[in-house]
From TrEMBL:
It is found in: Cytoplasm. Coiled coil: none annotated. A motif ('KMSKS' region) lies at residues 197-201. L-tryptophan binds at residue 136. Its EC number is 6.1.1.2. Pfam families: tRNA-synt_1b. PROSITE patterns: AA_TRNA_LIGASE_I. Catalyzes the attachment of tryptophan to tRNA(Trp). It is an enzyme of class 6 (ligase). Homodimer. It comes from Sphingobium indicum (strain DSM 16413 / CCM 7287 / MTCC 6362 / UT26 / NBRC 101211 / UT26S) (Sphingobium japonicum). ATP binds at residues 8-10, 16-17, 148-150, 188, 197-201. A motif ('HIGH' region) lies at residues 9-17. This is Tryptophan--tRNA ligase.
Length: 334
C-alpha cells in the first residue's frame, strides 16, 4: 500500500481540511504496516495559481508543514515534503500533458467554480492544475489517496490519464489510485452558508474555523454560525432540507465519534442555544492541543526546513524510477 496526499499551502489549515483529509492521513500513517509507505506533501507548485508575494509563500509553506506535524504527521514515519523540492512532479506533469485531453479538463467543476465567468482571464496553470495533481499521484504509483469529497473528480481524472498513457504506450507503468473519502466529514460546509463548502478562499473568516483560532474565537464563530429557528430533530432524517443544522450536527458527530442519529437523540427538541456551546467545547478541546503544538513548531524555521529537505530527498528517490520509465516509454532519450 502506498498512501499519498497533498494540501495547498495557501492560508491556514481549517476544520474542513482537518476533518475531511488530515485526520485520515494521520490514521493511515498510524495503521501502516512495514510493507506500506505514506507520502504527504505541500502543493506549493499548485499554489502558483493563487497570486502571493515571495515572503508570504515561504511563510505559508513552513506554516503548513508545522500544522501537519502538529496534527499528527510524523516526519520519521511518513515522507513529508514540499512539491517544489521534488522536480519529478513538474516533469511528469509535462509528459502527461501529451496524454490529458482538453475535453477532460473542461469538465473539471473546480476549475469552473474558481474561474466563474472570467474564463479568458484565468491562468493556464489553473486549467492544467489537475494534470499536475495526476502527476503527483502517479509518479509514486500511489494506491490510496485520502482526500475530501471535492477532490473526487480530480482522482477520476488521474485514473483516466493513467489508463490512456498505459494503453497509448503499451506499458503497465501507472497504478490506478483509489480515493479514500471519509463517510461522515467528506464535505464540511461554511458556517455562514450550509450549501457552500468551508474553504480558505471564502472572504469571510467567520465562515471557517482555523487551526490558528483561539478558544474565544472558536466559541464566537460557533455562536454566530447560521442556523434555522426549528428545534433539533430526534433522528438524522429530520435534518433533510436543513443544510446548516446538518453541517453542525455532522461536525459534532465526527468529533465525538457518535453517529448523527445518536447526536440528534441527545439534543432532540432542544434549540441551537443549547447545542452550540456543546459543539464549541468539543471543537476547543480537539483543536487546542494541535494549536499549541503548531505555535511552538512554527517558531523554528530551520527545523521545519530540515524536515522538508529530508522528506524531499526520500520522495525524489521514490519518484525517480517511475519518471525514468515514463520518459523511456515515450522514446524520450536522456
Ligand atoms: P486543498 O488544499 O484544497 O485541501 C486539502 C484537503 O482538504 C480537503 N478539504 C475538505 N474536506 C472536507 N470539507 C471541506 N470543506 C474541505 N476543504 C478541503 C480536500 O478535499 C483535500 O483533501 N488539489 C488539492 C491538493 C493536491 C492533492 C494532490 C491532493 C495537490 N495534489 C494529489 C491529493 C493528491 C487541494 O487543493 O486540496
Amino acid at each position: 500500500m502506498r498512501v499519498l496526499s497533498g494540501i495547498q499551502p495557501t492560508g491556514n489549515l481549517h476544520l474542513g481540511n482537518y476533518l475531511g483529509a488530515i485526520r485520515n492521513w494521520v490514521r493511515m500513517q498510524d495503521e501502516m504496516d512495514s510493507q506500506s509507505q505514506c507520502f504527504f506533501f505541500l502543493a506549493d507548485m499548485h499554489s502558483i495559481t493563487v497570486h502571493e508575494g515571495r515572503e508570504q509563500r515561504i511563510r505559508n509553506v513552513r506554516d503548513m508543514a508545522a500544522a501537519l506535524v502538529a496534527a499528527g504527521i510524523d516526519p520519521d514515519r511518513s515522507v513529508l515534503f514540499n512539491q517544489a523540492r521534488v522536480p519529478a512532479h513538474a516533469e511528469l506533469c509535462w509528459l502527461l500533458n501529451g496524454t490529458a485531453r482538453i475535453g477532460w479538463l473542461n469538465r473539471m467543476t473546480q476549475f469552473k467554480d474558481k474561474v466563474g465567468k472570467d474564463r479568458e482571464g484565468a491562468s493556464i496553470g489553473l486549467f492544467v492544475y489537475p494534470v499536475l495533481q495526476a502527476a503527483d499521484i502517479l509518479v509514486y504509483n500511489a494506491t490510496h489517496v485520502p482526500v475530501g469529497e471535492d477532490q473526487k473528480q480530480h482522482l477520476e481524472l488521474a485514473r483516466d490519464i493513467a489508463t490512456k498513457f498505459n494503453t497509448d504506450f503499451g506499458v503497465e507503468l501507472f497504478t490506478l489510485p483509489d480515493p479514500i473519502i471519509p463517510k461522515e466529514s467528506a464535505r464540511i460546509m461554511s458556517l455562514r452558508d450550509g450549501t457552500a463548502k468551508m474553504s480558505k478562499s471564502d472572504p469571510s473568516d467567520m465562515s471557517r474555523i482555523n487551526l490558528t483560532d483561539d478558544d474565544d474565537a472558536i466559541m464566537q464563530k460557533v455562536k454566530k454560525a447560521k442556523t434555522d429557528p426549528e428545534p433539533l430533530p430526534d433522528n438524522a432524517e429530520g435534518l433533510a432540507g436543513r443544510p446548516e443544522a446538518n453541517n453542525l450536527l455532522g461536525i459534532y458527530a465526527t468529533l465525538s465519534g457518535m453517529s448523527v442519529d445518536a447526536v440528534c437523540a441527545e439534543f432532540a427538541g432542544k434549540g441551537f442555544g443549547a447545542f452550540k456551546p456543546a459543539l464549541g467545547e468539543l471543537l476547543v478541546e480537539t483543536l487546542r492541543p494541535i494549536r499549541s503544538r503548531f505555535m511552538e513548531l512554527r517558531t523554528d524555521d530551520a527545523a521545519l526546513d530540515a524536515i522538508l529537505e529530508k522528506g524531499a530527498a526520500k520522495a525524489s528517490a521514490a519518484a525517480e524510477p517511475t519518471l525514468r520509465a515514463a520518459y523511456d516509454a515515450m522514446g524520450l532519450m536522456r
